[in-house]
Amino acid sequence: MVEDRLSRTAAALRAGSNLRLGVVVGFESGRGLGTVAELPPSPGTSRDEEGPSQPPPSYPFHSTAIAGGSRQIAPGTAVAFVLAPSHGGTLEARELHPLRPGRRGST
Predict the structure, then answer these.
(1) Number of domains, the chain
(2) What is the DSSP letter of 79?
(3) What residue numbers bound the domain in which 81 lies?
(4) In a 10 Å sphere around its CB, with 0-12 CB exposed, 13-18 middle and 19+ buried, how is residue 73 labelled?
């Protein structure tokens, strides 16, 4: 089942979708704020312009952006997400969909 979700996500990325893959690198449950690091695109995809020497970009998110009604997510959880403008004029991650079952929980 997880492999199916990853395959569908990868297919959406190849199709030019706004969907991105990443890993939660930090989450502060008391404040409901976290950070997700975008995984580098597969070779040959349209977002390959950054090159291998650039660190992966990371984006903040709020717990209300976690899909499924959960307000908790563990660091290390693989997620699919979209980018959207934040109130401060920068980009933030929204619509976070955990891709590894059982990794949600308090931190």
Answers:
(1) 1
(2) E
(3) 2-40+55-98
(4) buried
- Model-level pTM? 0.70
Distance (Å, whole) CA 4 – CA 9: 9
Q: Which residues contact 96 (CB under 8 A, 6 or more apart)?
A: 24, 36, 61, 65, 66, 67, 73, 79, 80, 81
Per-residue pLDDT of the chain (107 residues; tens, 9 = 90+): 545 555 555 555 545 568 999 999 999 999 999 999 999 876 655 554 555 667 889 999 999 999 988 899 999 999 999 999 998 889 999 999 999 654 444 44
Is 84 part of a structural domain of the chain?
yes
Q: What is the CATH number of the domain that holds 80?
A: 2.40.50.140
Q: Is residue 85 situated within a structural domain?
A: yes
Q: How far apart are CA 41 and CA 13, in angstroms?
A: 9
Instruction: Look up residue 41 and give its two tokens.
Output: 């695109």
